[in-house]
Amino acid sequence: MTERRNIGGFILFTMVIAAVFNFRNVINNYVSIGTLAAPSFFVATIIYFIPFTLIIAEFVSLNRNSESGVYQWVRSSLGGRWAFFTAFCYWFVNLFYFISLLPLIIVYATYMIAGKGMEIHTWAIAVISIAIFFIATWISTHGAKWIGRVTSFGATLMLAMALVFVVAAVAALLGGITAANDLSIAGMKLDPSSGLTTWAFLGTMAWIIQGVGGAESIGVYLNDLRGGAKAFVRTIVVAGLTIGLIYTVGTWLMAVFVDKSQVNYENGVFVTMAAAAEHFGLSGTVTIRVVGVIMLAATLGGLMIWTSAPVKIFFSEIPEGIFGRKLVALNEHGVPVRGAWLQFAIVVPLLVIPTLGSGSSVDKLLKIVINMTAATALLPPALILVAYWMLRKKFDSADRSFTMGRRGPGLAIASFLVVLFAVCFIAATFPEDQALWLTLVYNVGGVVVFLGIALIWYERYIRRLRAQDPEAAERELRASALEQSALNAAEDAALAALEARRGDVVAGV
């Protein structure tokens, strides 16, 4: 491994914030469960985000001789079959993320242009979303260098908007404003009489866990950070607590200006920001348009990144031979063009199906797709947690520079998180107020069909590999933890020998 520690703690801190924080999560969860989302965010940060990030750091330190993507992490303890399945899940989850992202682009554009929401039939939203995704796919296959600038611009503005809102809400409270909702601890309790049942709350917890997710995209930078594992752990804990605090305070302060009953998934951010602006004598209409620009820029940047990056990562990370050469072939911009257009073809029906169950309600459409996005988003980290449990159970002696405590506590944390994920996934997949046919066709059917196809396709690959090279097939299916451990030990020995020779040279001089 080459020495490449070229980023400091502050840079990593900002990368975590950019990868994880999104003000939409504050809005969506306030609309769903009110100020109860505030402590829920903070608890999720403590019991999930920070431990999961430390688990990623442990996988990265074990696989430090590779770029340590999701495939390598899971292969460490579960072998190639489940490694492929997890990598496929990350790509699969992204398909549903598009379904929640594309309609928002239309919503934000209407607020930016008209200064208010416009009545658009959900079928029209589906058609326009398909057109937008077609353009985004075409752009992504031609390598758009400005994507990073757009993403950075939008993410920075969104974070600034969130901080301005927090300051404004605190100033309003100090100025004596009467909050629109109960800000006390009593106002944060689970109240079934309000229609919020325990099952509905568990389903929303999937949204909250998704909201503080993103650690897997940051863990790969452990080898780039000056200070190594200790600096990484310190920085990631501080960043995680910061994000949890922003989410918690932001959700709690939503109740300062607007009642929960006045906002929905479509207009929440605009109604809230307009109310805050008008409290200080500013124009609510102008504020709505400015917020529309910020949200549109952030969402477009996210769309461009997620249109190209997951396709490239998935098709380049998995073993050669699982898919045909034409499907994984890269163009001059390093993008698997056929894979990108296959993604487009799959997303189109996924955009259409939710409109059948939402009628003409944009808000109901957004709730359906946000719910399904959150549910599927739990699958990849759940598989990583299972892989970590197996690592501590069977391969705890494997050499790595960082471990999350001793074997017993590590197993206990992983076990708890796997159970939590399972309960939240089931609750989000079977929401109380959704038509049964839609749940079975979209929520259950989509997962079963796509993941079933993935396993069938992998078994087809293994059968072919066994026929050609039985030893290679067994090596592919075998957990790689001990192999990685041997590579790490050899590298450490080589580095120690190199340092010893350098010492002899210096002593001789």
Describe the fold and architecture.
- By secondary structure, the chain is mostly helical.
- It is built from 19 helices and no strands.
- Helix 4 (70-114) runs antiparallel to helix 15 (379-394).
Summarize the structure.
This protein has 509 residues and is mainly α. It has helices at residues 9-20, 23-33, 37-62, 70-114, 122-141, 147-174, 198-211, 215-218, 228-257, 268-279, 284-317, 325-328, 337-358, 362-377, 379-394, 407-429, 436-468, 470-477, 481-508.
Number of helices: 19
What is the rounded Rg?
Answer: 24 Å
From the N-terminal CA to the C-terminal CA, the straight-line distance is 29 Å
Average pLDDT, all residues: 81
Characterize the biggest β-sheet: none
Order of helices and strands: HHHHHHHHHHHHHHHHHHH
Number of strands: 0
Structural class determined from secondary elements: mainly alpha
Question: Which word captures the global form?
Answer: globular
Portion of residues within helices: over 70%
The stretches of 5 or more residues where confidence is low (pLDDT under 50) are none
* Percentage of residues in strands: under 5%
